[in-house]
Design brief:
This protein is α/β, with parallel strands linked by helices and 428 residues long. Helix content is 46%, strand content 20%. The protein folds into two domains: 187 residues, Alpha-Beta Plaits; 231 residues, Alpha-Beta Barrel (TIM Barrel). It has an eight-stranded mixed barrel with strand order 6-7-8-9-10-11-12-13, surrounded by four helices. Strands 1-3-4-2-5 form a five-stranded antiparallel β-sheet, sandwiched between helices. Helix 16 links the parallel strand 12 and strand 13. The longest helix is centred in the first third of the chain and has 22 residues.
Length: 428
């Protein structure tokens, strides 16, 4: 019952601007709003809740009598309706309603092609400036001061109703203390990337140290070019913090399969996955669907690299999923070995097919006997585990020479080739 009451307390709902009219609270229905938000999500849009709040509401009450104040608030709401109708396309408005007599709340469908955080900020400023100017012309002695806040509705919450209410509360908080703009920017950016699958994959060859032949390719993810999320570190960090990591990594896996299918590549392909994704209860079933969609790609051609930015401890389905992947024919690599304790622990837990030695071990290894001893130790670990070894981050001939004299299996790095677009089984 509490949830029903909280929705009813939203006040008088005004439906889209083309036919604005008030409904008494007892006739306020959740369904039109929920259906509008659901349809927006299904069409690939975001929904933003914007709250326009009168910052000096208390002062205005003190300046006016109760009856006059009520009349002023009605005039102000009419001004908001008029100005919003001029500033926003009617089809973008999901609902416009009272905010406890202190302002207006607006639910707006956000189109990625037209909107950005900057555009939303400009729109809000235009609305508040215009309402202030018009109000002061009508009431020269009264000067309202507006604050606005906004928050995006989380489409991945288990309940759209709860998500709307949560976004509304957060938008109110933003109106009162605007400190979350950078977070909003990140949320909108990562949502846009996931919705549009705006990921580019670059390929870097993995070289046979003994023969200098290309044995495999690692596909590396990049966000939209020229943005702060082009960097994979930024991209996946933001995705994790905004709850979109699994979706983003599944997009990477699908794009990898697309490119292998289109290029008819027959060499091995390496692709990174975090333990969080590999341990997701949906991962193996979602992967099977993708294999069915891109038929003809043998699982034995694909190696999943377990990136070592997360510990596997506490991930209930991780070990089970790894076993299922192996039964399906996929190979498993442990990435970033030597960069920390967690990689050695992961090796002992899953006995990977490939161990990838981190750049921190390889850098200047030709000048550092301790690092070469570390390499030899990791080679012994790999031999015990029955794993091939890939040395990462080779930058020069001197580092490559150390790999040769230690009989390292495979190597990767800018010394051999920089990451480039993948086409016809080769980087172009």
């Amino acid at each position: 019952m509490k949830k029903v009451k909280s929705v009813m307390q939203w006040g008088k709902i005004i439906l889209p601007l083309s036919s604005i009219r008030y409904y008494p609270p007892q006739f306020t229905l959740r369904n039109p709003l929920l259906e509008g938000v659901t349809e927006a999500f299904e069409a690939g849009h975001e929904v933003v809740v914007i709250v326009f709040k009168i910052r000096n509401q208390k002062d205005l009450i003190e300046q006016t009598e109760i009856q006059q104040h009520s009349k002023l608030m009605k005039n102000m709401k009419k001004l908001f309706q008029t100005v919003i109708g001029q500033e926003v396309k009617p089809k973008e408005v999901l609902t416009l309603h009272d905010y406890f007599g202190e302002g207006i709340s607006l639910l707006l469908k956000v189109d990625h092609d037209r909107h950005s955080i900057s555009n939303i900020d400009i729109m809000i400023k235009n609305i508040t400036d215009e309402v202030e100017q018009r109000f002061i012309k009508l009431h020269p002695s009264i000067y309202p001061v507006f604050e606005a806040g906004y928050m995006f509705v989380d489409k991945h919450d288990y309940s759209i109703q709860d998500s709307i209410l949560k976004a509304h509360r957060q938008a109110i908080g933003m109106a009162e203390k605007r400190e979350q703009l950078e977070i909003n920017e990140m949320v909108l950016a990562i949502n846009k990337i996931v919705t549009q699958k705006a990921i580019t994959l670059l390929a870097q060859p993995i070289i046979d140290v003994a023969t200098n032949e290309v044995r495999a390719w690692e596909l590396l993810s990049r966000g939209p070019k020229g943005t702060v999320l082009e960097s994979p570190l930024q991209l996946f960090t933001v995705a994790r913090q905004t709850g979109r990591l699994y979706e983003l990594e599944m997009i990477v896996v699908e794009k990898m399969l697309q490119q292998v299918k289109a290029s008819r590549c027959r060499q091995d392909i390496f692709v990174n996955c975090t333990p969080l994704t590999l341990g997701n209860i949906k991962f193996t079933s979602d992967l099977k669907k993708l294999l069915h969609k891109y038929r003809g790609i043998p699982p034995k051609q694909i190696t999943f690299e377990v990136t070592e930015r997360d510990s596997i401890e506490g991930l209930k389905n991780f070990a089970f999923n790894i076993n299922v992947l192996r039964l399906m024919g996929f190979k498993i690599a442990v990435d970033d070995t030597g960069a920390g304790y967690s990689s050695l622990n992961t090796i002992s837990e899953i006995m990977p097919d490939i161990i990838k030695i981190d750049r921190s071990v390889i850098e200047n290894i030709d000048k550092n006997s301790v690092k070469e001893s570390m390499l030899k130790g990791l080679l012994l670990v790999a031999k015990e585990a029955g794993s091939l070894v890939v040395a990462e981050g080779i930058e020069n001939q001197e580092e490559a020479s150390v790999l040769t004299r230690n009989n390292v299996d495979l190597a990767q790095g800018n010394f051999y080739a920089r990451p480039a677009m993948f086409f016809d089984g080769i980087a172009t």
